[in-house]
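Batch job 17 of 40 flagged for manual review because the log was empty.
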Amino acid sequence: MPRRTAELKTLESPAAPKLSRSTVIAVAIFLVAHLALLIGLTTPEKFVFDEVHYVPAARQMLAPAMSQPMLNPMHPPLAKELIAASIATFGDNALGWRYPATVFGALAIVAIYLCGLALFSAQGPAIAAALIAGFNQMVYVQARIAMLDIFALGLGLLATAAFMHGFRRERPQAMFALAGSLFGCAAACKWSGLFPLGVCIVIVAVIRLMQGWRTLFADPKPDDWYRPELWPGLKPHHVALCFAVLPTVAYLAAFVPLYGLSLPDLIEAQRRIFADNTTTAIAGHTYMSAWPSWPLLARPVWFLFDKTAEDHVAAIVFLGNPLVAWPALLALVVVLRDFIAARRWDAFLIAAFYFGPWLAWALLPRTLGFIYYYLPAATAASLALVYVLRRNGLPRWLLWAYVGVAAAGFAIMLPISAAFVGTSMRTFNRLMLFQSWI
C-alpha cells in the first residue's frame, strides 16, 4: 500500500507545478493588462460615445427608489449594475464610470491565455495568443469606455476557455457547468453573449447526434474533432443542466436587484429587450456598417474626436490593428482547411468560436450594426494566428517575431486609440488610410 501511494504521488507531482505556473502566469497577465488599461483612463473626463446611455442608467440604479421610466431597458442589467457599483466606490466621475471595463478587459486577455493553454498545451503559444489579442487594439479601446461589450466579452471568453478545457476530457461536466454559468452572466450584460453559448450547444448536439448514428471516420486519428467515445459519462440531463438551466439561472439572477422575484416583471423585461433588439432600424447612423465588412476594417467608429489645440487632437477610434486583423484572415483559411481536411479538434474549436459569434449577426433582423460587434470574433482570431505560426516546419522564433510586429502596429495606432496620448492632425490623417475610415 505505501508503494502504491508513492507511485500515485510520482504520477501526480508534475501536474502540481504546471497548474501553479499557469495560475501565476494568468495572474501576472491580468495585473499587467489591468495596469496598462488604467493609464490615462480618465481622459477625457466627459462622456465618450455610448457612455451617454449606460452611465445615466447606472446612476439610476443607485437611487434610493428606481425612477421611471427606466433608462436603457433594451439591454440586460448586469454590466450597468457593475458600473453602478464602481460609481458607488470611486465616485461619479470618469474613473468610476470606466474602471470595471478595465477589469473585464484584462480578464478577456487572461481568457485568451487560458484558451491557448487548452488548445496548444504549452505556455509559450498561450502567452503569445494573449499578447496578440491585446495588441489587436480592439480590446484596448473597448476596455477603456463604459459600454457593455467588454463585460460580455470577458465573461464569454472565460466561458469559452472552460468549454475548451472540458472538450477533450472524459468527464467534462464540471468545465461545461462553469462555461454555462459564465455564458449566462455574459448574456446578462448583453444578449450577444448568447452567441458563443449557441456555438457550444451546436457542437455538443452535432457530436451527440453523430454518436447516436454510430458515425465512424474511415481513418480515425487521435486529433479528430469527433470521436465515437467522446464524453462517455455525459448524459442528457448533464447537457440540459450545463447549457440551459445554469445559464438561465445566472442570467435571471442579474434582474433580481431590479425586479425582485416578480415573474411578470421579469417576463416584461425580456419582452422589452427582445422588441428593442429585433426592430429594424429605419434611420441610419454615421458609423454603421454591415457584418461582412467588419473583418476588413472597412468602417471604424469614432468614439471621440476633440480638437485640443490649433494642430492637436484627442481621438479614440475603434478600428483594430491592421497588422493583426488582416493577417488573421489568412490564418483562418489555414484553420478551416485543417478542420476540413485533417479534422483537427483545435482547428475545429478555433473556427467555431470565430465564425459562430461573427456570422450570428447575419441571422438577426437588425440592420444597424457596428464594427465593435466583431470584437469577440476578432479577439478569438489571435488563436488562429498562433495556430498557424507554431506549425511544424516553421522556426520557433517566427511566432515571437510576429508578436513584435503586432506590438509595433499597436504602438503606431495608439495615438488614435487613447485620448490621453493625443496626436497632430497630420499624423491623424496619415493613420486614416482609407476614405471609408474618415
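Reviewer: the log was empty due to a logging misconfiguration, but the result itself is present. The first helix runs from residue 2 to 12. Unflagging and moving on to job 18.
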